[in-house]
Amino acid sequence: MSVKYVYFFGDGTAEGRGDMKNLLGGKGANLAEMTSIGLPVPAGFTITTEVCTEFYDNDRHYPQGLEAEVDQHLARVETMMGKTFGDAANPLLVSVRSGSRASMPGMMDTVLNLGLNDATVKGIIAQSGDERFAYDSYRRFIQMYANVVMNLDGDILEHLLEQKKEQKGVHEDTALTADDLRDLVAQFKNRIKEELGKPFPDDPKEQLWGAVGAVFGSWMNPRAITYRRLNGIPADWGTAVNIQSMVFGNMGDDCATGVAFTRDPATGEDYFYGEYLVNAQGEDVVAGTRTPQPINKAKHKQGDLPAMEDVLPDCYLQLVKIRETLEHHYKDMQDIEFTIEKHKLYMLQTRTGKRTAKAAVKIAVDMVNEGLISEKEAILRVAPEQLDQLLHPSLDPAAEKIVVAKGLPASPGAVSGEIVFTADEAEEAAKLGGKVILVRIETSPEDIHGMHAAQGILTARGGMTSHAAVVARGMGKCCVAGCGDIKVDYRNESFSTPGGEIFKKGDVITLDGSTGEVMQGEVATVKPEMTGEFGTLMGWVDQYRRLRVRTNADTPHDAQVARDFGAEGIGLCRTEHMFFEGDRIMAVREMILAADVDGRKRALDKILPMQKRDFLGLFRVMKGLPVTIRLLDPPLHEFLPHSDAEIEALAQELKVSAGILKAKVESLHEFNPMLGHRGCRLAVTFPEVYDMQVRAIMEAACELIKNDRYEIVPEIMIPLVSEVKELAILRANAIRICEEVIAQYGVKVTYLIGTMIELPRAALTADAIAVEAEFFSFGTNDLTQTTYGLSRDDAGRFLPSYVEQEIYPNDPFVSIDQAGVGLLVEMGCVKGRQTRPDIKLGICGEHGGEASSVIFCHKIGLDYVSCSPFRVPIARLAAAHAVLLEED
């Protein structure tokens, strides 16, 4: 049996169905479905996505038999419409539109009024009795075809149109006469021949195949490629082509065209939201060449143009009934396109409407209350990533903005502030009530106080999981990272942009952490609203998910934010961030510079009560919930100054020679510190560091258990283990300290000692490591680095190119590499449970807050994920999706 490439729809009959989007694309499947349920849809046919795939597989050649199949279906449309394609006396005109299985609004090409030439335009005049309408359609067709199919710069013909209006002293296209438009058609054709060296095609069949080729070709245009990359749409899906008989909204004042949403796509309100234009074609509504009118009076404001409800009341009532039909049929909010020709309404498209996060949540909850969908369906209606919009301020869509640079959207939100270039300046400004943006070439842990004080962070270097990005997300701070567009000049306290603008300290800029845009001046924002519907939805979410969700938090404030968002404990407390606080950094430096063990212990004794206070704060916020505390991880040199001036200042404060201090700094220098003397390796060399931290953890726990009757199970995590013997030594030390403290307080405490699996060797030998570990926390940030051999802080320079060229399906630091890194995680789980069946398994890298990674963690049987506080709701929703998707 031969392959069927073309599917017909029209007059209540359709060969396709709404569930055939993979084959017919979204538009084609929905045109077939609307036809089948009795809605007024102009007859036509769809060329399948399989043709698009073969088109690209065969060097842009069509499969054999396609042309004959198209001719057969075109003849069927001719019979149904009572017109003939290319016939001078009674011509059929068609539209040619794209239609991917995933909605890609505006990304691909469309041609309207196809089939017009100098002969058929006379037939259109005879059919309509309106010469002006016929030549208006003809000039529109030439403009669109020349641009879309012949690749003529659209401004060339648009300039001729503007010239003609200027000559005639009119402002609107609708004010041009039939003679004006006939003259424009001739001018257009002459100019096309001048520019391209070939005439505009008169043969309708040639026009048709030119348009079909252009639509298939537009699947690989730059904007479509970019849209697919941003929305995770595979290139091999292809697009369908829809060829449909034309109906005309530009035939007079009893004609119109419009676009509508069955509910408000911004708020989710159950309100018929849309716009239309009298005597116009579809592109006029979206192009902005004329001011569109509202379809109804529900929110009509003084000064608005007349609503369709008043101008075309019968058609409006019919459209309202179609709205109800579509919502009850599709059980979702729809985005529709319609045309009215001589008071007759036609439906040209319906698709699931794009909506904001706020609208998605409200529509989902409302439709459950209306009995249209179930709670499970409502959960799946809201994409986890959408929740970012609800949890952070965003730019006011109505505000004007001047974009001067663009980086990576590292942490969502929208903020404005004065530029500062050092963390100290940010902190000082915040103390005085100032709002600042911290601009750095890249950040380090020493900048933590300034990052906390700033409204937002902008870095010239670094990727989506760079220090700036990770810390900013943990704090819920807006961050644009890896903005290679800017050149930061610390000496002159300024940065420059590609456009040549110079921004100096004190200048105001705005960051959009959801898009990566950097804007000049202050741009208005809108605050997030945690609506009642959000709480309702998240209540349903928690009923269905199995995976627990913890947070990565280092301060009581972050822990409280996360708990308010539904976190079920702390999966990662990075103790090194606590070392940079102003009242303890000097003691840390004293410990590093000490000449012997006794000197280090004296310095650590100063830090102990400070660390204990930190842990008391976290335990109090997380009362009754697990808290995993990672012992010191980074290399010691990160805590020391590096410039000569900073070394000199510290030497004076510590009353040591600047030369001795500089020599110590140099002695700690490593060529590759990420793989150097850090994590458990530090504790093997200097066990007193971990001894102090374990003591602080246990004293805090014992104190709360004894005095406040808390139930606490501290989880002590030893990082960067690659060999079980490392863990055995450090575990024994930790147990010794724990038991000493427990005996000292005279209480019973259950505690766990585990490790972070962040090196490939640790995953490969997890069965041996599990002998000494009561839990594994997979640190997928470093595991990705060490598996790929990539530096996450440097890879941002080339990873976008890898994704664009489809070498990698996506950034592996954003979404877990399931085939490589994920396989190591799964192997670590299996091996760990072979040795210790009750071992607790979690993930604490940034992947713990990314939806597809959370779903993967569910599939391989982890007990929990841990993520930044502001991503906790996202992880909760993704965990519920994981369960419900398994049921489908």
Could you provide a short overview of the structure?
This protein has 888 residues and is α/β, with parallel strands linked by helices.
Would you write up a description of this structure?
- With 888 residues, the protein is an alpha/beta fold.
- Helices cover 44% and strands 17% of the residues.
- The chain has 34 helices and 32 strands.
- The strands form six sheets. Strands 13-23-22-15-16-17-18-14 form an eight-stranded mixed sheet. An eight-stranded parallel barrel has the order 25-26-27-28-29-30-31-32, surrounded by six helices. Strands 2-1-3-6-4-5 form a six-stranded antiparallel sheet, sandwiched between helices.
- Strand 10 and strand 11 form a beta hairpin.
- It is elongated, with a radius of gyration of 32 Å.
- The two termini are 32 Å apart.
